[in-house]
Amino acid sequence: MINTTIQELRARYRTSAEDKRAVLDGLLTRYRSVGKSGAQLNGQLNGELNEFLHKLAGSSGMYGYDQLHAAARRALVLFEGSEKTEELTASVESIARSLELVIKELDAL
Amino acid sequence: MEKQALLLDLERKSNALEQASRLQTAFLAGVAHEFRTPLVSILGYSDLIENTFEADRVLASAGAKEPSGANSENAKARQWVRGIQRSGRHLLSLIENLLDHGKGQSEQLRLNYKAVNLKSLLEDIELVMTPQSKQKGLEFVTELNGCSSLSDCWVMVDPDRLTQCLINLVGNAIKFTDSGRVKVLAEYHDQTLKIVIDDTGIGMDEQALLMIREPFWQAHHEQRPGTGLGVTITDGIIDLMGGSLNISSTLNEGTRIEISLPLVTTNEQAQEEAKKQDLDGLQCRVLMVEDDDDIAWMLEALLCEKGFDVARAVHGQQALELAHQLNFDLVLMDVVLPVEDGFEVATALRANGHCAPIVMMSASQQEFDSRNTKQINYDAFLLKPVAVNDIVILAKELAEPPKAS
Predict the structure, then answer these.
(1) Is residue B327 classed as helix, strand or coil in its secondary structure?
(2) Which pLDDT score is estimated for B333?
(3) Which ipTM value was assigned to this complex?
(4) Residue B405: how many other CB atoms lie within 10 Å
(5) Tens of pLDDT along B157-192?
(6) Given an 8 Å threshold on Cβ–Cβ distance, is A9 in contact with B295?
């Protein structure tokens, strides 16, 4: 017996994960283009990235995607320590990989 | 001069200790948050699964669904899911205790008294502890005396804290018993609740009996490891409840622990209270102000399964418009919102005359602590990820009964 509510939630999260991947790709491209220095980040990009990571950490935890949640939390911690820009880039890349895994997992269900 | 140097040294050490304490608190808060997140997700999904079983049961009993052999299997599975939920909720309360302990605020533990059916409380303990006792081949028995029927078993206690105490003590009894049995006997008379945990375990000598309430002290810690906090925490909680914890033991024969709790209400008063607590039929109209779709969908699904009506706003302006058009019994308000934050929206709702209780939600305790929240009218605060059970309990505590239209 499969709960239809859970199925619906998963289907919605599948669509939303796809959107998140697109937003994350865009943010990562912009982040790379302004250079590796945290000082070069403009305020808007900073805000967008922070908000994205914050929301991703919250929702992935609630849906039980622990790896994605941990990756987003790690990135948030690095984000607050503005000196570690390279680590943050690597961390955001690992979020993209975790998102990919979540999408694959949802597709396989 | 020497005195001056000593004072300076003392101040330095005091500062270092304060900093270490702050770091410890931050570390424990972080760890507790990390543990809490997947657990809330487990509880959320298990709630949904349990509701599915319940829906099937109702359909079958109403004749809308063919009864089949699968029904008894479903009943078993439902029982297992309940086991997951009870253990999960217990783990959640332990994590929250860890946070209390880390803050050095164990003396500030608050009790939350509710009407509880003693029989159900013992069944919960049995459900959680039976797998451990079975694993060791022990007999595990619970017995209730002094109640003639189910309706005669109501008491007002803090069920989470009392369950925590019993799980600590029964867990120890199982750990230190290699053969025979562990028995939990509850007796209720003359407005005193007595619970005895009796085992046929390895027992303790006089020295161990003197030390057992000390934090981090453990009997036979090499063969049977633990945290050494169970009895200390239990003793503190029972003391806070105005009760007493008596321990007697004989080496190689067993241990007997007796909890005595004075009850402030009669069985009838507790039964009345239980009727008020009953969540069945609670009609609650919730205004959820949450801009994150994923979180909103999950919360909405879980709340709808509980029979709540949920309307959602994604920003402050929309929240004000909805509150103007419809009556709500409860507002769930995210702190981080576009344009105006949740605190500003709450203030605006109050300024516009909306008096439904407001529950703020945030993933960060610090975010909440950093605000001067005293002047903002909200009624409760929940840490994200939010456990839907906490919302249901708050809804019952805070929400006005729905007004007749």
Answers:
(1) coil
(2) 93
(3) 0.81
(4) 4
(5) 888 889 889 988 998 899 899 999 999 999 887 778
(6) no
pTM comes to: 0.60
Topology at the third CATH level for domain B114-272 = Heat Shock Protein 90 (3.30.565)
B contacts of A69 (beta carbons < 8 Å): 37-38
| Whether residue A71 has pLDDT greater than 50 | yes
Helix (H) or strand (E) segment spanning residue B156: strand B154-157
Q: Phi and psi at residue B80, in whole multiples of 5°?
A: -65, -40
What's the CATH number where A65 sits? 1.20.120
Helices (H), B227-280: 230-240, 267-277
B345/chain A closest Cα distance in angstroms: 19
Which of these, B142, B231, B151, lies nearest to B187 by C-alpha position?
B142
Q: Cβ of A69 and B293 within 8 Å?
A: no
Beta-carbon separation of B305 and A54 below 8 A: no
Q: What is the pLDDT of residues B356-400, one digit of tens each?
A: 899 998 876 666 666 655 566 788 888 777 877 778 878 877 764
> Given an 8 Å threshold on Cβ–Cβ distance, is B293 in contact with A51?
no
CATH among 3.40.50.1370, 3.40.630.30, 3.90.1210.10, 3.40.50.2300 for B279-398:
3.40.50.2300
Å from A4 to nearest chain B CA? Answer: 9
Closest alpha carbon within chain B to A65: B38
